[in-house]
Write a sequence for this structure.
């Protein structure tokens, strides 16, 4: 008997170069005039050439961002949305999926961006910062906006600041939550979490990282995230969205997921399962 395609219930998205087309830390570096130095470290970490733990503190120390600059990065995230990201997240939630964001980015920017996408704050994880309370015009602490001038002092050296830490966060967030898990991300730190999920989708719509492309069970080359909707929701999700505002994005997702030039499966049998799942789609 043919095995059927099985969707997922808990969907974990990376943020930088997955939901947004920028790397937030590199955007901060650009604001500080240190883009070349920091960008090189970021790429080496995301490509798996350096452990994230070896570069995380170095990048922040070189930049020393303020709260106001992180707010500017939140806006840049929103201005550089990956195609269809808001619609895909809204549709996933409509069909009963739980959506999470797990990022090695900085929490002030990632949480604000996630809220705009409709992801509850308790389902967002990123790196917490500590600010120097005596920086800026600290004596005006009671005035509106005074907190925005405070400067970076230290960061939380937790699992999101090392290359293989996202699996732990997935385990914590998924604890007690029934259903299959999916992770979508572009970098080596995302790939390292593949053992904690049932389906890992490498995303190459912003940047193609060779290791992720070669090792991911599924690799999405499209600039749009629409195919993720079809992969997670399957035929049942398609039926649930028919006649709704989400029908168009789901239709786009099915079309892209069935296109071998956009979605590559390492295992041919999985591609056949997906094709069979949508055999009646037209």
């Amino acid at each position: 008997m043919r095995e059927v395609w099985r969707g997922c219930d808990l969907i974990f998205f990376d943020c930088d170069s997955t939901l947004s087309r920028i790397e937030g830390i590199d955007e901060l570096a650009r604001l500080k005039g240190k883009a070349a130095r920091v960008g090189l470290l970021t790429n080496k970490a995301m490509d798996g050439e350096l452990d994230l733990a070896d570069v995380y503190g170095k990048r922040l120390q070189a930049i020393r961002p303020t709260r106001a600059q992180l707010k500017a990065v939140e806006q840049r995230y929103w201005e550089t949305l990956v195609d269809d990201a808001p619609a895909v997240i809204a549709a996933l939630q409509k069909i009963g999926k739980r959506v999470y964001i797990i990022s090695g980015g900085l929490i002030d920017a990632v949480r604000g961006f996630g809220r705009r996408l409709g992801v509850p704050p308790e389902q967002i994880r990123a790196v917490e910062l500590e600010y120097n309370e005596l920086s800026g015009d600290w004596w005006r602490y009671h005035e509106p906006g005074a907190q925005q001038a405070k400067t970076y002092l230290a960061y939380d050296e937790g699992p999101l600041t090392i290359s293989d830490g996202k699996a732990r966060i997935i385990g914590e967030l998924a604890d007690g939550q029934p259903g299959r898990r999916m992770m979508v991300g572009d970098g080596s730190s995302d790939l390292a979490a593949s053992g904690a999920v049932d389906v890992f989708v490498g995303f190459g719509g912003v940047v193609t990282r060779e290791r992720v492309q070669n090792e991911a069970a599924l690799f999405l080359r499209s600039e749009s995230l629409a195919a993720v909707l079809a992969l997670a929701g399957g035929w049942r999700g398609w039926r649930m969205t028919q006649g709704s505002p989400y029908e168009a994005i789901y239709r786009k997702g099915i079309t892209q997921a069935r296109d071998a030039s956009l979605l590559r499966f390492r295992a041919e049998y999985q591609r056949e399962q997906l094709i069979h799942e949508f055999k009646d789609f037209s």
